[in-house]
Write a structure and sequence with these properties.
Layout: E1 9-12, E2 18-23, E3 26-31, E4 40-47, H1 48-51, H2 59-62, E5 67-70, E6 76-81, E7 84-89, E8 98-105, H3 106-109, E9 124-127, E10 133-138, E11 141-146, E12 152-158, H4 159-162, E13 177-180, E14 186-191, E15 194-199, E16 208-214, H5 215-218, H6 220-223
Antiparallel strand pairs: 1-2, 2-3, 3-4, 5-6, 6-7, 7-8, 9-10, 10-11, 11-12, 13-14, 14-15, 15-16
């Protein structure tokens, strides 16, 4: 029996209030209308390989995207599938998407993740409001990384200790996808048929879970196409 597929990865676009949302090897471009009603699908659902020529005949177009986060470099994102990752120019206003680095092993792109839970895959990620920093998650673990030319590990540990607002919630032991909002220091988390919105504070644990619930009840455009059977 084919398992239900919900959000597996996402990242915010360079265009205000727009995000690329992935369901394994499918995607949509979404106007997520933060803080208001009126969310809508702008493009898709469609197969990744049918839209992004650079991803055709790669692990990302075939098996799909497991995790992603937008780069500080405009129009770029880091994408992950299994133990493979790449820095990718997604060409928001043209068909000229291309790889900038990779595809390569996660530990080749980020050597400091060797011998951590992240060397064989990342479940979810979103970028910090601090330049060239991102949060990555796998199971109940998280890490804060710097992905600049001088990339390095900033911190690592259990979600429940470092994100107190997620303790005793469905997100405590991990989630499937995430993306940073265009509203500073806010991010959306996805787990199965549910999602949450958090307010985070880089550098400390003064975070707040602003809302959580079922996608179908509060995110109408996304709920209208989920789950997928791809």
């Amino acid at each position: 029996m084919t398992a239900d597929i919900y959000v597996t990865a996402a990242f915010k676009s360079t265009h205000e209030n727009q995000a690329y949302i992935f369901m394994k090897n499918e995607y949509i471009l979404e106007d997520y209308a933060p803080g208001q009603f009126g969310d809508r699908i702008l493009r898709g659902p469609d197969r990744i390989r049918n839209v992004f020529s650079s991803l055709k005949d790669t692990v990302f177009g075939d098996k799909g995207i497991d995790c992603a986060f937008a780069s500080q470099d405009e129009g770029d994102a880091y994408i992950f599938s299994g133990n493979i990752c790449a820095k990718w120019f997604y060409a928001p206003d043209s068909p000229n998407d291309k790889f900038l680095q990779g595809p390569k092993l996660i530990v080749e792109m980020f050597p400091f993740l060797s011998e951590t839970v992240f060397e064989n895959g990342v479940d979810a990620a979103f970028e910090s409001s601090r330049p060239f920093e991102a949060y990555i998650f796998k199971g109940g673990e998280y890490a804060c990384i710097n992905y600049s030319d001088n990339s390095h590990l900033i911190g690592i540990g259990p979600i429940r200790q470092n994100w107190p607002c997620l303790k005793s919630t469905i997100f405590e032991q991990g989630f499937d996808g995430a993306f940073a909002s265009h509203i500073p220091n806010q991010a959306y988390l996805f787990k199965g048929d549910s999602y949450g919105l958090i307010q985070f504070t880089p550098g400390n644990t003064n975070d707040d879970l602003l809302w959580s619930g079922l996608i179908k009840d509060n995110w109408k455009s996304l709920g209208s196409i989920l789950p997928r059977k791809n």
